[in-house]
Amino acid sequence: MIEAQGLTVSLAGRTVLQSIDLSISAGRLTAIAGPNGSGKSTLLKTLAGELRHTGRLDLMGEPLSRCQPETLAALRGVLPQSSEVAFPFTVADIVGLGLETGGAGYRSDAAARIGAALDRVGLSGFGPRNYLELSGGEQQRTQFARVLCQIPKAVAEDGTPRLLLLDEPVASLDIRHQLEIMSIARNFAEEGGAVVAVMHDLNLTALFADELLLMRDGRLVVSGPTAAVVTDAILEKVYGCRLRVNAVPPAGVPFVLAQCAG
Amino acid sequence: MTLANDRVGFDREPAAQGNAGARLAPLVLPLLLGISIVSVAFSVTVGASDASLLSLLKAFAGYGMEATALDRDRIVLLELRLPRVLMGFLVGASLAVSGAVMQGLFRNPLADPGLTGVSSGASLGAVVAIILGDRLLGTLAPALGSLLLPLAAFFGGLASTWLLYRVATEGGRTSVAILLLSGIALAAVTGAVTGFLIFLADDRQLRDLTFWSMGSLAATSWPKLAAALLIMLPGLAVAPFLARGLNALALGESAAFHMGIRLQRLKITAIASVAAATGAAVALSGGIGFVGIVAPHLIRMAIGPDHRQLLPAAGLLGGALLVLADSAARTLAAPAELPIGILTAAAGGPFFLWILLKNRARLAV
Q: Strand A163-167 vs strand A194-198: parallel, antiparallel, or unpaired?
């Protein structure tokens, strides 16, 4: 789905991503984790096609920088970390914006699609509400519903997989909605799509992610299956603090516990 | 920082949320179209001369007849008032649509061609045409006739917008903050140049300039209207095609790009549209302010911020508002005439302050 080699990004003369090699596969949920300022969000923005880069970055075998915005919009959806909406749009208006992307234009079943997307993120009946008056978590789920309207299926009718890029999708959600949103992402991957999510919560990551990319100082430190990456030694090296990984029953999912210094 | 703390705290009370606004939306365009037609018809019949709606119909029916009274009414209505009222409508619509497009582009309900320097540039173009037109163009100036002023204002608006764009754009992306601040700088520079030109002007030019800068629709004629349409209509015609992009842009430049919007094309088209519509409007009517803020804001309160409805609805409302303001300007001190800019400023100024106070929390950021 995505192949990168020697991917380097500079912003205002400072190198924020340094020669990153990665491969993102369809059917997998890939998490990006790392300390604050390690370049996670920058990497996600680069994968979304927002930032100029050097090195190779291909989406479905095409150089990403050569794809037009509307082509990209049909292939991948992006959930931003936070969204400031400039006017008092309704929730249904915001979600409906996702329907119009990729040249899809007006759809006669728009209301039904918007309603279904809101149902999936647990916002049934929120359509007429003013977006600006929602809580942070509700706004985030509204944006997720918009992304689901833009990319409704994990695999398109012609069999090509679709991609979701999620920047801290559960950052301001309560625990129930964290699980619900991660389950939607998980299902998207299981249905054959690719999901890349920037994550802070390592335990949620261990629970849902197939692959984990750990970043530090703009470099990709480790990547691999989540269970293999989430170890005491690797995490302590990346985060620079003492952490203890246990396995929790029944499935033996890794569980990260912070240790007091000293 | 949590997402909750980032929430935008403005424009909370509009009735747009909820089903009321959504149900209203399909009715608003026909309603505004009706209001526009009625206000144009009404405005044609009021003024210093007592020509009535009936005589307007007679004038249409009896075009070319020789009866003296009818002929007088025909001239008053068809040669003086009708072009003036239509011009007023088009100027109001242009300013309102330009305002709505600017607000969408800058993601700010207070943005306006005036704030970004487009009006300053257009004014400077018009002032240059008034004072230096004869000297610069020689015999070409009279040949251009009615087209000279709108054309000069259009190029002035476009030049200032182009300059702003060069200043505010880096690496293919535009910073809205820099654009707005550049607008302030540009307004200062054009103000200085205008002042210098006024210093050069003779008495007749000075009178022309003063009257023009107060805002007036008085000296309208069919040739002027036709000349303005050549520049105004293309600007207005592209506006509906901007609606989807401006809706997406409300979620931010990144989100709009994610949804497949070509940002640079959207911005350039929006700016050109605004330069054309505003330039023609400024050239013809001088300093008519606040229509670009008031009309879009009222529409947003009634039916919400969706640009697909907002742009045409604001255009109709802006046109109707300016036509009614012009009727008042012609009748309040009849047979003398108030400059229309005084009326729109008197009504629009407090309205602007009210929006400012409502959005204080956001502007303090």
A: parallel
